[in-house]
Amino acid sequence: MINYLPVVSFDDWVCIDGFDIIRDRLRKDTDGKLASALKTLHVSEEMVQAIGLPELIRNLARDDKVKKKQIQNLEKIGELSTLLDGDFGSRRDKKRLFRENPKFTKSITAELVKNSLSGYYFIPNFSEQEGGPGYVILLREPSSMPFGLACRIARGLSLDDAKGDLEAAHHIAFQSNDFAMPVRKIASPHIEHLLQTFSLLYGRIGLPDLPENITRLPEQHLLEA
């Protein structure tokens, strides 16, 4: 068998993994803003769980002590929370979430391009003629194929030659081209950096948690000094 890492277009990555990342970050940010707003109003978060945010907002709107700006802030938080819980069925809907949240979009894409977003490795276009924003290697999804099939692909495997071949049908697809073949080569030192990044992700050594009496020794040493 020969091991390999799958590569997807940036647009495909955005609509699956990238979308999950931005929705998760937006959800955490929204939850934090809600907790902060409720704290300012001296309202328990359990109240939201009990009656729901829309009902809570209606109750607060009847309170003369609550400012209109505070109500509007809660309504804005509620709208985003509802949006994040909704169904994003199309690519257009998913990309809209990026366009409407530029701060998070800039953060995620910057991490990706700098290869500091764990689990992903960004590679730009291989030539100016390609167009598009580049590709993403999925470091957490290594796969494998039979060595013989890999050699056939290296020489160039046509759709006609692969017909009826169960092994080829299981590992490769011909939707976008009638040939499976090498198309690009990642040059040095980028290939070495890619391998290093992958090795650091997969070669982590896990250690058991230390007993509490040991972990507290440095703290006790300083406090008792």
Which features does this protein show?
mainly alpha, 12 helices, 225 residues, two-stranded antiparallel ribbon, 57% helix
Short description:
The protein is mainly alpha-helical and 225 residues long.
Low-confidence stretches: none
What number of domains? 2
Q: Please state the overall shape, judged from the principal axes of the Cα atoms.
A: extended
Structural class by secondary-structure content: mainly alpha
* Gyration radius, in Å: 25 Å
Spatial separation of the terminal alpha carbons: 60 Å
Tally of alpha and pi helices: 12
Care to count the β-strands? 7
* Percentage of residues assigned to helices: 55-70%
- Secondary-structure element order, N to C: EEHHHHHHEEEHEHHEHHH
Strand content: 5-15%
Q: Biggest sheet: strands side by side, in what order? A: 2-4-3
Biggest pleated-sheet summary: 3 strands, antiparallel
Mean pLDDT across all amino acids:
89
